[in-house]
Amino acid sequence: MPIELVVFDMAGTTVRDKNFVGTAFRQAMRSQGYDIAIEDVNPLMGYEKPLAIKMMLEVREPDKSKITDALVDTIHTHFVNGMIGFYKTTDEIAPLPHVETTFEALRAEGIKIALNTGFSRDIADVIVNRLGWENRIDALVASDEVPYGRPYPDMIRKIMAVLGIESAERVAKVGDTEVDINEGINAGCKYSIGITTGAFTREELLPYKPTHIVDDIAEVIGIISQSHELAANN
């Protein structure tokens, strides 16, 4: 089956991230007295952020009775406010290399482009607006718009429903973290493509068995084109 939809992650995959997200996460945790090293934060970046916060608290807080929904919500609110303030004002926000030309090339072939993210929708909207991507993508779904974020398949399935894509065999997922890859696998996507422009190196992505690993997002065009050629010949 030819690919009809490619779902891309945001920070680290399509949006430049010089560890802005990790830094904001650390600051949010520190606001409640938890000092987390950046190397402990980065592996959790693809997760829905309240879940990532809870995972960190379970490691760092010996008194489990303190790990309440209220504490998670306080930290997450600090994170969201920090990220919105940053993305609204920073001059650093930019697409990663070849992202926009990749979007254009895929859409020229009739392939739909969607974004999904571990961010909440309010942060995602600020990013899309700042980059002027409203007309470059066909759908956007954030982790707070579905029952379960990554690695569950809910976001991809919601995008498929919105865009009328019936089979996950017609979908490719592209992301820079473990949970991006597992999200694609759990959704049954034909391709679950890891990319090395974000939080994980090639060596760190390999154990999660992506169908492909790319160093440049433009390589996705070739993967999809090859898929279409194979479909045409069968």
Task: Describe the secondary structure blueprint for this structure.
Blueprint: E1 5-8, H1 20-30, H2 38-41, H3 49-60, H4 69-89, H5 99-108, E2 112-117, H6 121-131, E3 139-142, H7 154-163, E4 171-175, H8 178-187, E5 191-195, H9 202-205, E6 212-214, H10 219-233
Parallel strand pairs: 1-2, 1-4, 2-3, 4-5, 5-6
Protein name: HAD family hydrolase
Keywords: Hydrolase
Pfam family, one: Hydrolase
Q: How would you portray this structure in words?
A:
Pfam families: Hydrolase (PF00702). Keywords: Hydrolase. The structure is a single chain. The protein folds into two domains: 5-17 and 95-233, HAD superfamily/HAD-like (Rossmann fold, 3-Layer(aba) Sandwich), CATH 3.40.50.1000; 20-89, DNA polymerase, domain 1, CATH 1.10.150. 46% of the residues lie in helices and 12% in strands. It has helices spanning 20-30, 38-41, 49-60, 69-89, 99-108, 121-131, 154-163, 178-187, 202-205, 219-233, and strands at 5-8, 112-117, 139-142, 171-175, 191-195, 212-214. Strands 3-2-1-4-5-6 form a six-stranded parallel beta sheet, with helices on both faces. Helix 8 (178-187) links the parallel strand 4 and strand 5 (191-195).
Characteristics of this structure?
HAD-like_hydrolase_sf; 46% helix; 2 domains; Rossmann fold; 234 residues; 12% strand; HAD-like_sf; HAD family hydrolase; DNA polymerase, domain 1; PGP-like_dom2; alpha/beta; phosphoglycolate phosphatase activity; 10 helices
Instruction: Give the class from helix and strand content and strand pairing.
Output: alpha/beta
What is the count of structural domains?
2
Structural Rg: 17 Å
Overall pLDDT confidence: 95
Residues in helices, as a percent range: 40-55%
The spatial strand order of the largest sheet comes to 3-2-1-4-5-6
From the spread of the alpha carbons, the general shape counts as globular
What is the third-level CATH name, the topology of the largest domain?
Rossmann fold
Order of helices and strands: EHHHHHEHEHEHEHEH
Q: Terminal Cα separation, in Å?
A: 9 Å
